[in-house]
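REQUEST FORM: STRUCTURE PREDICTION
Request ID: SP-0412
Submitted by: Lab K.M.
Chain count: 1
Length (residues): 174
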Amino acid sequence: WEAAASVGSALLAVLGYLAFLLATAAAAAVILAAPGFLEHILAPGELSSELGSDWPDLTAKLLFIGVFGFILFACVTLLFARRSSGFLHMMRVLAACFLFSMAFLMINDNKPRRGWAEFTGQQAATAANNYLDSFRDGEPLFFGTVFFAGSLVLIAWPSAQRRRRRAYARETLT
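STATUS: Completed
RESULT:
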């Protein structure tokens, strides 16, 4: 049963890390306003004729909700996967998910409000550069980036048991 529990924990960990990765991708799409980029820069007007004029806003709202859905799923699955590794290792998951959520909210609040519409007609690289330049500088952007980096460090931090096993393996090999 111990081997089966270990395999189950490994599968839960893989699912949790995958959900964390999907939350990161969805957060990047929301922050960079990917639906607006598609609508105004890559295919101006083409998608609105097929999907309706409000599809970029609707897609952005769904992605916003998806970020928190993925991060919640990652939190729950990683908590279950790490339950045999100790309380502190489980708390790192909670802290990482909290920091990720705070980073996302801070950076998302700092993005340009005008969106991509003002860059219609520009080449994609020029428009992307102008969009990124229009982010407001300041503490929220800085701390959001620091919180995101902190969440990555916490989520990747190995358990104490794993660190001890690696140290023991290094000692026996030398």
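NOTES: The helical segments are 2-31, 34-42, 46-51, 55-81, 87-109, 124-133, 139-156, 160-173.
Reviewed by: T.R.
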